[in-house]
Amino acid sequence: MASNKISVTMTKSRFGRLPRHQACLKGLGLRKINQTVVVLNTPENRGMINKVSYMLKFEEV
């Protein structure tokens, strides 16, 4: 059974990135490097995580 929540940590800076990638980080609620948020495991959040996966570390909670 899939978990309902995902823990997401931003590992790289958002500066100098594409505007759409910055918008994905904002949509996930990430503002600072090494900040961790817990988001729901929905297709919308999964899409944002997949788009900027090179800047994130994530795991199911």
Automatic annotation (TrEMBL):
CDD domains registered for this protein in UniProt: Ribosomal_L30
Residues annotated as transmembrane: none
InterPro entries documented for this protein: Ribo_uL30_ferredoxin-like_sf (IPR036919), Ribosomal_uL30_bac-type (IPR005996), Ribosomal_uL30_ferredoxin-like (IPR016082)
Domain of life, source organism: Bacteria
Presence of keyword Lyase: no
Protein name (record): Large ribosomal subunit protein uL30
A GO cellular component entry from the record: cytosolic large ribosomal subunit
Gene Ontology biological process terms in this record: translation
Gene3D superfamilies assigned to the protein according to its UniProt record, in alphabetical order: Ribosomal protein L30, ferredoxin-like fold domain (3.30.1390.20)
Gene: rpmD
Quaternary organization: Part of the 50S ribosomal subunit.
HAMAP family xrefs: Ribosomal_uL30_B (MF_01371_B)
Keywords: Ribonucleoprotein, Ribosomal protein
Family (UniProt): Belongs to the universal ribosomal protein uL30 family.
Domain Large ribosomal subunit protein uL30-like ferredoxin-like fold, first and last residues per copy: 7-55
Taxon lineage: Bacteria, Pseudomonadati, Pseudomonadota, Gammaproteobacteria, Methylococcales
Molecular function terms, GO-annotated: structural constituent of ribosome
